[in-house]
Amino acid sequence: MRLAHSLYAQLAVASWPDIYHFRVTDRFLVSTGEFLIPSLIGLYKPGSPTHSLTLRVWANLLDQKHTKSRVASKRPGFFLLCLIVVLFSLMTPAAKAGQITVATASNFLNTLKALQQPFAKHTGHQLSIVVGSSGALATQIINGAPFDVFLSGDQTRARQLIDKGVGDETSLMTYAHGKLTLWSNDKTLIANGDGPAILKSGTFHHLAIANPKLAPYGLAAVGTLQSLGLYSGLGNKIILGENIAQTFAMLATGAAPIGFAARSQLARAPWKSKGSFWHVPDNMHQPIKQDAVIVKHSANQNTARQFLEFLKSAPATTIIRSFGYGTEKP
Questions:
Q1: What is the distance between the alpha carbons of residues 255 and 17, in angstroms, rounded to a whole number?
Q2: Domains of the chain
């Protein structure tokens, strides 16, 4: 599987180097602007700084050709040692670069991107992001995907990793409380913000929700409809997105006139000032507590723990709340 990922990723980078949209790979999304190449020796970005450093090491060695005989006579194993160091740097680029790969539920993508630079400034470490539905990402990790941290959209999938022996229970933490919003790109559809009224009227062709079997926001949407006594009556109008990002894409493009989105997706321009909405009260569905856990087979345990500590800090929680989430007290 990792070899297949490597071939796909390298072909994608070679064929579409300037595309910065999302591509689907084994049911999770990869941002080609931060594209990762899963290879037989690790996970790294094209043009990794470590590889540039390696080339500079080789250049420096070649520039010393005039002193080679002196160095060789004094230290017979010098060049062999250099070769070992260079090969080691090639095999462990992520660890040497202080970089971790974070697999995140799609609802948290924009928030995580906003956290990248503050985390780098605070710790000197970099984040690479893989995004998808919580269920699909959890399956990838259980099957050995080389991720360091999993930011689930719920508590169930994070706990699943622990139960399967691939999640570190000591690292388990709630990093955000998700909020659900009924939203339409049509400014007049949800008149006066009365969501229950428009849902009861049924005057729309489709209602978009995330797949409740994979996405916690989809499960919360089902819970909301059940609380209103409308789930069975609207069943023939419901269309499913694989995750909340795909669901919101249907809403933003008008493919679905109305549906349930994560409030974080509406927290920034241009969507903050568009459409009509109803913020679903938290008591109408089970709480959307989003848990994080470190992957046991991660080779970057220390950096992963620094990241989770950073998520609890005041600067990080301020950013998280600005995207419409609730948080624990820092």
A1: 29
A2: 2-46+98-177+290-322 (3.40.190.10), 49-93 (no CATH), 180-279 (3.40.190.10)
